[in-house]
Amino acid sequence: MTTDSECIFCKIVAGDIPAEKIHEDERTVAFMDVNPGTRGHALVIPKNHTKDLLEIAPDELAAVTQAGQAVARRAVERLGADGINLLNCCGSEAWQTVFHFHLHVVPRYVDDPLQLPWIPAPGEPDEIAETAALLRE
């Protein structure tokens, strides 16, 4: 297993730092976020240290996503969440603060105060089309 001795999430995987673990399998660990956005906010990580979305292997990403789905289902079934946000932040400009890939599973409730940092508004159609052309395979 790949680890980084300075990584707080690797220390959680190793058991060197306590965490409220809620799911674990051979490839992933899910634990409660110590700075929760809502009740039940959890993080799902691969046990192998990988910096971010651009570096994680596809099979590791699939394992994290599957574990995230299991945690999301439990939040709906056991906490009564009305919805779920899955969030990954890749890079410091995208709010990544721990550089070990992680997926936030954020239960959402009708009356919760959490708001995203932007308010969606219609984009300019030509710019959207031009950008799509650049991103298309």
UniProtKB/TrEMBL annotation:
Coiled coil: none
One Pfam family cited in the UniProt record for this chain: HIT
Active site as annotated: 102
CDD domains linked: HINT_subgroup (cd01277)
Sequence motif Histidine triad motif, location on chain: 100-104
GO MF annotation terms: catalytic activity
Protein name according to UniProt: Hypothetical histidine triad (HIT) protein
Organism of this sequence: Flexivirga endophytica
